[in-house]
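Slide 14.
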Amino acid sequence: MAESTETVPKLSEPPKSSEPELVLVQNPPSKKTVCVIGAGASGLTCTRELVSLGHKVMVFEESYRIGGVYTKSYDRTMLTTSSVLTAFSDYSTGLEDKPKFYTDEDYLMYLDGFAQKFGIYDHIQFRTTVVKVGRCLATNKWLVTTKTGAYTWPHRSSFLMPAKFSDELRREVNEVHGAKTLKDFYDRAEKEGFENVKNTYKYDYYDHVTGEKQTMCPTQIDAGVTKTYAFDSLCVCTGTNTWASLPRFEGQEKFKGSLIHSENYKKPEVYRGKRVLVIGAGESGSDICNEIASEAAQVAIVVRNKHGHLIPRKQTDGRVTDLNTNRCRYSNPYCLGDWVGWANQHAKRFVALNGSGDGKTDEDRQVLAKIGELNLKQNTSAFSKFGCKNEGFVTAMVTKGTELHRDAFHLESNKAVFRDGSEFVCDAIVACTGYRNSFPFFEHPDVRDTVFHQKAGLRGKDIAEHVKNPRLNYKQVFHPDFPCAELGFFGFARPAFGSIPPCSEMQSKMFAMVTNGDLKLPSPDEMKQLCLKDTANYEWRFGYDAKRVKGLVDFQLYTDDLAEQMGILPPLGKLFFSKPKVWYKLMFSAFTMHQYRLQGPYANPKVAEAVYEKQPVGDFLECSITAAFLVTSKILSLIGFSDFTPNNF
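Slide 15: predicted structure.
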């Protein structure tokens, strides 16, 4: 990568001879230098927005390809939000009229196209670990220490070459070299255990930037080059699915079978003929449960109290369900949200049980009816409950005899015993218990007790602890003690229904505007008060889930909030009269970020309108129900019932 850097003899004091080379990244005139940690979807859009305004950006990525969590996903991973809902607003595939659910490999190719279009590869240093992050109080520069030679175990994505290379090379790498390497890797993993093999396996791969053959060896990091870079700003894009959270279960020491976190699950064939307990019914847990049920002798899934509000990937007519994740639905006030959900669940359950001529099999209808039954039984809606946007474990229940348990349990040598007295004999457990936020580069021994902010008395370990709860950051992005966009966190806001990458796009746009001097943040004290206000709102809205999933947000309310501050909210009233077709698509099609390109500093109405021209709307039944509630709430609000005021409508 071509860098505009120079070696600097000192910042606050000269480095000792044993310390890494110190590099000051040179900024263009009137612009900033920014470090981005991570090249997943959030890191890519963050880089795109900052570079578009002329800032100097360097990205450090441990893997040797872009993609974040999808570079270590299990074999049959499929996204739970569709291609239209997951898309960035400035990169279109041109297939908005045919929305589908990406596999992980499909999405990696989408991200590759995005990175190629905007020249993002030029800013990324791959196989580079951020070892520690400090701050020079004399210059207010962030001191980012990196080391090259990072190790990554082989994965399908390792051999998925970008589209810029020839078809011949891509086939050779993927279907020949990659297939052989992965077979050998998984054969060893089955014999020795995935956890034992994944960090010791040596193999060849092809560089995703140059196409050159390289060797991946766990010991290479020992010879890696260490450098410290000085930046004006720091963007942390390490994601919410990096550090596995595996609790210790009561009686675990007695259990004789295998127990893994879903991070180490790759393929269901490993469980052929076994009795498997899946713990957790989030989106990964639901899909994994259904996969394993196809191979195992028997499967049970256990959830803590209530599972997420269930939404199938596809509607009864075969179209993607998240076309109904639209402005019409989520403009309804919170006080009507559960009623909207109740009406829709009853209507859809009725259609599932009694519909015909829709191409659905009896099993499909039974699954859809069961989803409605389970949601109604636990009295949840998309307005007040974290979502599970796939029907996996329900399919496993209906078609494969999977058991559902909602109780606490303890383990014995060969079984789980539930509080209600029931038991499930098992010889394997897959714990889909999620991930935790962790920022080890702030907790490195060299910096954890170092002061980063004199006035606030912040040390490295204080920042690491603070940002484990994204709600303590202003709009879940800006650390409030650094009010000039010096420290931001991206991808940690998690919409109950919706998609993280579009949220990251909006966060990145706002951060770039503040960095560029086009938008001013409130004072640190004001930001902290607004953080408390936002926290109270989401804890009231989502209850228990908001305390468990710290970054939980309402997709529309959150992105509208950011858009309002940037002056890019869609002009709904004006559109209703001047461009009614665009207004109709905005209200009844998938809630995409293109709506924020119609006016303001990021306006590109021609592109946005072209997307909406193609994009289909949600199903007639659900749109009719949600529209009826929305019109009713608008009328009630106009005659004085303020609790019924719609959201930005």
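Speaker note: Residues 83 and 99 are 6 Å apart (CA to CA).
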